[in-house]
Request: fold
Amino acid sequence: MKDSDVIVLDEPRLSVADQFYLPQVLVGLGTTMKHMFKVLSGTDIVIQYPEERREDMPVEQGGMLLRTYRGVHRLNKDEEGRVKCVACFMCSTACPARCIHIEAEESPWQDREKYPAKFDIDELRCIYCGMCEEACPVDAIELTSMYDIVGLTRQEMIFDKEKLLRIFDQTVEDEPM
Amino acid sequence: MSWIETHIPAWVFIAFIAHGAILGTVAYLILLERKIAAWTQDRLGPNRVGPFGLLQPIADGLKMLLKEDYRPADADPRLFTLAPALMMFVMILSIAVLPWGGTKQTTRTIQVAGTIDSATAVAEQNTPFGATLIGTPIVQTSGEDESAKSTITYTYRYAFQIANLNIGVLYIVAILSISVYGVVVGGWASNNKYSFLGGLRATANMISYEVPLGLSILTIVVMYGSLNLATIVEAQSHYWFGVIPAWNIFTQPLAFFLFLTCIHAEANRAPFDIAEAEQELVGGYHTEYSAMRFGLFFLSEYAGMITTSAVCVALFFGGWHLPGLGGNVDPAHPSVTTSLVVCVLRALVFFVKTLIIIGIFMWVRWSLPRFRFDQIMNLAWRAMIPMALVMLLVTATTLYLFGPHDEAFRATGLITWKMAVALLIANAVMLVIIAAGAALLPAAPPTNRRVRVLGSRFDQAPAAVPATA
Reply:
C-alpha cells in the first residue's frame, strides 16, 4: 500500500450544542426510555418462545400462519406405506442449493421402474425455497411446517430417507398430503 | 444487652449491616443491569431462574465459584491474584465514610452502688467508644452510707455511620484513586497485550477524570467550608421558603453534571469503557481472568458505582434528607435525632437515592456509544477541567461577594435562598461564558495524526537492525 492510497477523512465540524454532547445525550436517553416504557407497559409484545409460539397467536397480533410456512421436508408414503418417490431426480435438479442427494435403484414393485435407495437432504444447506415440492411429479416430497429442528452435529442435520419418512408419520395427521 | 449497647460502638453494627447490604445489592445490581439492558433493547431479560429471574445472581455466583480458576502460564502469579483483591479491598474501604443516618442521640440512666465522686467519669465509662457525651450527667443519690445508690442520667451522641472522618470527601477521592492500581496491576500481571492496553487506557481515563471530579467536589466544599460528608449533608437538610429542600442540585446544577460525568468515567463504564472495549481489546484488563477472580473485578465495578453514587447523593441530593426525617432535638442541628427508627429510615432513603443514581448509570450505559480515546481526553482536558476551574472560581467569587452581606449565612454557614439564587444565576452566567468560550478555543489537534512508530510505513528512518554478536 502506498501513501497515495490512503484517503484521509476529516470529521464533520460539530455545532456548539453538539460540542457539549449533552443535548444529543439527552435525545439518546429519551430514545432508550421510550423503549423501556414500551416493554414494561406491554405495548411491545415479547414472546416467551418455547412456551409461547407464534403459530398459537392470531396473525393480526404478530402470529404466524403455518399453512403457508415452509419448514422441514418429508417424504410422503402411499396407501401401502411405501415411499411415493420414483427417483426421477426432478427435485435435486430443481434444487438451487443442491442439497438433495438421491441414489436410485431398480424398484422392487411393479408400478414403477425406480425407487430411491438413498435419499439424503442436507437441512443446513437447504434454503427452504420449496422448489423441490414444485418440481415433484408424484407429490412425494413436501415441506412441512416444522421449523424447530435441532442437531448437535452437522452430520445429524443431513436427513436420510428413514428420517424423512418418519417426519411424514409425525406430521401427516396435522398436514395431510 | 445493656453492656453491649454501652460498650460496643454502634459503627460495628452499622459496618456489618452496611457491608452486608451493599455486597448483597452488588449481586442484584448485575441483575438490574441485565434487566435494564434488556428493556432498552425490547427484551425482557433474565426471567428463568426464580420469579422474575430473582435467583439469577445466586446462580451466577455459584457459577463463578465453581468455574476453573485459570491463570496463564506466563502471568505474574502474585500480582495476578493481588489485582482483583485490591479492587475489592478499595471498594469496601470507600464505603466507610458514607453518612447513612445523621447523628443519633441517646439518653441513658444507670444505677451505681455507693456515692460517686465524678459522675462524668462513670458516664464516660459507660459510653461506647466514638460517642461523645453531651452536657453534664445528672446524679441523684438515694439512701445512706452502705445502701446508697446513685442514679446517673447522661446523654451521648454518635454519628450513624461507620467512620465520621473530618476529611470524608478527601478520603473517598484518595481511596478511589487507588482502585486504578487494581486495573493497572491486573492488566500488567496478565502478560497479555490486550490486558496491558486496557490497563493503560484505564489509567489515562481515571487519572484524567479525577481532576474535574475533585474540582467539582471542591465547589461544594467551598460552599460549606467542610470536608466532612456528614456536615455537608446536614447543611443541606433545611428548606428555602419552607418547601424547597436546600439540596445542592438546585444551587450547583453544573457541578452536578460534571460530577456525574466524572463518576461515569471513574467507573470505567460506557460511554467511557475504553478500558474494556470488547471490539478492540477482547475484555480489556480482565481478558485473562476467569472464575471468582473475574467475579471480584466484576463485583468491585458495581461496588464502586454504589460508592460514587452515594457520594453524589451526599453532595448534591441531601444525603439522607427527606421531609419528615429531620431531627427532634435541636432545630439548628437537624441531623440529631433520638429515634433509632428515623436513623434506619434515613439510611434507607439514602440507599434508595443511591439506587436511583445507579439506575441513571445503567440507563446511560445502554443508551450511549463508546467515546473514542481522543474524544475522552479532549472532553476531560479541554472541556471539563477548564469548566470545573471556572465553576470553582465563580462559586468562590459569589460566596465572597454575597456571603458577608448575608446575616443568616454568616451566622450558620447554611446556604440561604438569596445565596442559592445568586449561585443559580452564577451557574447560568457561567454556562453562557463557557458556550462563548468554546467557540474561542483553539481547534483541537487533528485526530488523524500520523504517529511515528518504529518499523511502520510512516516511519521514514530504516528500522535499526540489532547488531549480531
User: Anything to note?
Assistant: The two ends of chain B are 80 Å apart (CA to CA). Chain B touches chain A through 23 residues (CB under 8 Å).
